[in-house]
Amino acid sequence: MSYRTIEVAGNKHEYTIGRTFVKFRGGDPVPLEKIGIKVGPKKYVVKPDTIRQYLENGTVSQQGKCRCGQKGDLCCDPYDAEIHNKKNFRFFCDDCYEACADDI
């Protein structure tokens, strides 16, 4: 296993992401349900930011900031999905999601 390093509050942590768990060196595995953001049935996205949130707070917010600064949900970019056949996940507020979908 190859471990990645993340620094949170001055402490270095090493982790690796598996199919169902995130494993921290020297610690117990954490299920993706606790540390990832749900994007579908039994599908979770784990980013360094979500790992940082988990290490700081013990929980992960299912919402983030959209490009415009408002709170948004993690969604697949409709333009990239339809035009480029790519699944790029990012946070969208309702207005920005609709505007992006209208571009198609």
Number of helices: 4
Mean pLDDT: 84
Portion in beta strands: 35-45%
Total count of domains: 2
Q: Order of strands in the sheet with the most strands? A: 1-2-3-4
Query: Which runs of at least 5 residues are low in confidence (pLDDT < 50)?
Result: none
Helix content range: 25-40%
Please compute the radius of gyration using only Cα atoms.
Answer: 16 Å
Number of strands: 9
* Helix/strand order, N-terminal first: EEEEHEEHEEHEH
Structural class: alpha+beta
For the record, give the distance between the C-alpha atoms at the N and C termini, rounded to a whole number. Answer: 41 Å
What overall geometry do the principal axes of the alpha carbons give?
elongated
Report what the structure shows.
The protein has a 4-stranded antiparallel beta sheet with strand order 1-2-3-4. Strands 7-8-9 form a 3-stranded antiparallel beta sheet. Strands 5-6 form a two-stranded antiparallel sheet. It is elongated and about 50 Å long. A hairpin with a 3-residue loop joins strand 2 and strand 3. It folds into 2 domains: 58 residues, no CATH class; 39 residues, no CATH class. The protein has 4 helices and 9 strands. The chain has 104 residues and is an alpha+beta fold.
